[in-house]
Amino acid sequence: MDLLANLGDGFLIAMTWQNLLLALMGCFLGTIMGALPGLGPSNGVAILIPLAFTLGLGPTPSLILLTSVYYGAMYGGRISSILLNIPGDEPAMMTCLDGYPMAQKGRAGEALALSGIASFVGAFFATWGLVLLAPQLVRVALLFGPAEYFALFTLAFATLGGIAATNQAKSAFAAALGLGLAMIGVDTQTGVPRLTFGEVHLYDGIDFLIAIVGLFALSEVFVFIEHRGTTRDISTKAPPAIGRIVPSWSLIRSCIPTMGRTTVLGFIAGVLPGAGASLGSFISYSMEKRLVDKEKTFGTGDPRGVAAPEAGNNAAAGGALVPMLALGVPGSGTTAVLLAVLLALNITPGPLLFTQNPDVVWGLIAALFIGNVMLLAMNIPMVGLFTRVLLIPPRILMPVVAMISFVGIYGISGSPFELLMMVGFGLMGWVLRKLDVPLVPVILGTLLGNEMEVNFRRAVEISNGDYGVLVGSPLAIGLWTVALVGFVLPILVGGRIKRRMHMSRDEEGALSD
Amino acid sequence: MSDRVFGGIGLALAIFYAWAAAGIQESFLTDEVGPKVFPWIIATVLGLSSLWCLLKPDPNPDWPSLGRLAEIGLAALVLAAYAEALPVFGFLLPTAIASGYLTWRLGSKPLESVVIGVLTALGIYLIFRSLLGLSLPREGVELAIDRFFSALGDTFDGSGDAAEPTTAPSGD
C-alpha cells in the first residue's frame, strides 16, 4: 500500500496547473515531432532539453515536459507510418505493414484511432509495470558496489546495439568514441586537466547536450540536404484521405486479446537490456501473426496487425524506463536522451533516486499516466490536425529545427565555441550514419563516461590496487557474462534477425503496392 | 573501401588518443589507478574495433555525388559562420540569412527562401525571446522589439491587469 500512497503523492505533485499545462504542451509537441518524418523521439527530446533547461524550469516540471514529449513522439510515429508508409521512427516500422494497406482501403481514420487506442493500452499498462517493477529492481540495485556498477555500465554498452545489431565492431567503436569524449576536461578525482590541449573552453569537459543536439538534430539537416530531389526525398508523397475516425466497438473488441498479449511482450522486451522498442514491436507483430493470422490477412490491412506493434512498442517504451530510473542505465536511444535530461538537471538516476528524490520519481510516473490519458483524448479527435502537420515540407521544417538547436545551445553556453562544436558534431553524425556506425553509444558514452570511470577507479582504490576486484563477486561475474553474451550473440545471429525484420517489411510492402 | 579508410582513421585516432593520454600530467596526490588508465582502456577498444573494420570492411555505403558532398560541406560552413556571427550581429539578421540559405538548398525557390528565412527568424525570436524570455544575442532590431514588448507589458501592468511578469522581458 506504500506504493499507492507514493503514487498519490506523485499525483499531487503532477496535478498543478503549470505541470498539467506542460504535460499538455509536451504531448502536443511530441505528437507533432513523432509524426514528422525525420524528427523521431530522440531528436525531439534532444532539441528541447537545452530549452527546458534555459527556461529555468525545475527538475519535476522539466521531466514532465520532456517525458510527455517522449510519449507523444511514440504516439506520433504511427501517423506517418499509416498515412505515408514512412515510419516516423524505427519502432513504428512494423506499423506500416498493416497500417498503410488499411489507409489505402480508405480506412485511414480507423487505423489511426485503433493504433491510438492500442498505444494507450500498451503505455498505460507498461506504466503500471514500471510502478510495480522499478521499486523491486531498486532493492536489487542496492547490492551493487562500484565493481558491479562498472560491470553494469559495460553491460549496457555491450547490449545497446541490440540483438539485431549488424556490426558489433562499429558499436564498440561508437561507445569508445563517446567515452573518449567524456574524458576530456579536468579529471574529477585528481584535478588535472586531461586531453584539453590547453584549450580553456574544454576544461569543463564537452557538454553532452552539445553532442546530443549536434549528432541527432543537426546531422538530420545534412541528411535532408543529401537526399533532396532524389527518390529518398519524402516531400513528394501526399497523404490519403482519412475516412471515418471512430472505430466500431466490434473492431476494438476483436483487437483486445491482441493488445493484451503484445503489451506484456513489449514490456518485457523494453525492460531487458538490448531489446528496446524496435524489437518490442517486431516480436509483438510476429507473435500475433503466428497466433491469430489464420486467414492470412496480416499485411493486407488487418486491424490486429496495426494494434499489435503499436501496443508492443508503447509498452516497450514504458518498460525501457524501468532500468533507466532504477539503475541509471538506459536500454535504448531515447531513454539515453532522457537520462541526459536527468543529468542536465543534476539528478543522478539509480537506486538512490527513489529515496532521495521521491517527488521526482513519483511525480514523473503520475505525469506519465496523465500524459497517456491526454494523448488518447487528444489523438482521436485531433488526428486530422496532426495529419495536416505532415504537409509541412522538410525544406521549411529542417531550417527551423537547425535554428532551434542553435537557440537552445546558445542559451546554455552563450559562446560561439560551443556552437561551432555542435556543427562539428553534426557533420560527424552525418559521416557516422553514412558508415552505419550507431550514434546512441556515442551519446551514452559521453553521458556515462565519467560515472563509469569513477566506479572503476573507486573499486580498484577500495581493494588497494587489486584489479581482480572487478570480477570479485558472483554478481559482477554474472553481469560480465551477460555483457559478453550480449555482445557476441548478435555477431552470430544478428544478421539473420535483421534480415528477417526487413524481409517481412519488404515482402508485405510489395504486396500492398 | 570506405570502411578501410574509416578503420585507418580510427586506428590513427586511437594511437593519438593513447599518446595524448600518456601526456596527462599526474599530480603528486593520486589514486591507485590514476587519470591515465581509463583513457588507455578506451584507446584499446577504439583501436581494436578500428582494426576490425580495417580487416573486415562492410560493403560501401552510397556516397552522394561530389557536388552534393560539397554542398553539405558548404551548409556546415554557413552554420559555422552563423555561430560566429550571432554575438556580433544580433539574432535576427544572421538567423534569417542562415535559415534562408538552408531552405534554399533544401529546394525552396530563391524569393520564397528570403521570405521563409525572415519569417523563421522572426518567429523563433518572438516565441523564444518575447514569450519565453530566453537569452538571445541582441542588437538594434532585437532591442527595439524587446522595448516594444516591455512597453506593452507596462501598459498591462498599469491598468491593473494581471499580466504575468515572466512573459515580458526586461528591457535592459
Helix and strand layout, with pairings?
The complex is a heterodimer of chains A (513) and B (172).
Chain A: H1 2-14, H2 17-35, H3 41-54, H4 59-84, H5 95-104, H6 108-141, H7 146-160, H8 168-183, E1 185-186, E2 193-194, H9 208-227, H10 249-271, H11 276-292, H12 303-327, H13 333-344, H14 351-356, H15 358-389, H16 394-413, H17 416-434, H18 440-462, H19 474-512
Antiparallel strand pairs in A: 1-2
Helix pairs in contact in A: 1-15, 2-4, 2-15, 3-4, 3-9, 3-13, 3-16, 4-5, 4-6, 4-12, 4-13, 4-15, 5-6, 5-12, 5-19, 6-10, 6-12, 6-15, 7-18, 7-19, 8-18, 9-16, 9-17, 10-11, 10-12, 11-12, 13-18, 16-17
Chain B: H1 2-22, H2 37-55, H3 66-89, H4 92-105, H5 110-131, H6 140-158
Helix pairs in contact in B: 1-2, 3-4, 4-5
Summed over residues and divided by their number, the pLDDT of chain B gives a mean of 85
Shape descriptor of chain B: flat
Q: Largest beta sheet of chain A, briefly? A: 2 strands, antiparallel
Mean pLDDT of chain A: 83
Strand-pairing-aware structural class of chain A: mainly alpha
Query: What is the percent of helical residues of chain A?
Result: over 70%
Keywords (chain B): Membrane, Transmembrane, Transmembrane helix
Pfam families (chain B): TctB
Organism (chain B): Oceanicola granulosus (strain ATCC BAA-861 / DSM 15982 / KCTC 12143 / HTCC2516)
Transmembrane segments (chain B): 36-55, 76-104, 110-128
Structure description:
The complex is a heterodimer of chains A (513) and B (172). Chain A has 513 residues and is mainly α. Helix content of chain A is 75%, strand content 1%. Chain A has 19 helices and two strands. Chain A has a two-stranded antiparallel ribbon with strand order 1-2. Chain B has 172 residues and is mostly helical. Chain B has two domains: 2-55; 66-167, no CATH class. Chain B contains six helices and no strands. Chain B has helices spanning 2-22, 37-55, 66-89, 92-105, 110-131, 140-158. The relative contact order of chain B is 0.08. Chain A: It comes from Oceanicola granulosus (strain ATCC BAA-861 / DSM 15982 / KCTC 12143 / HTCC2516).
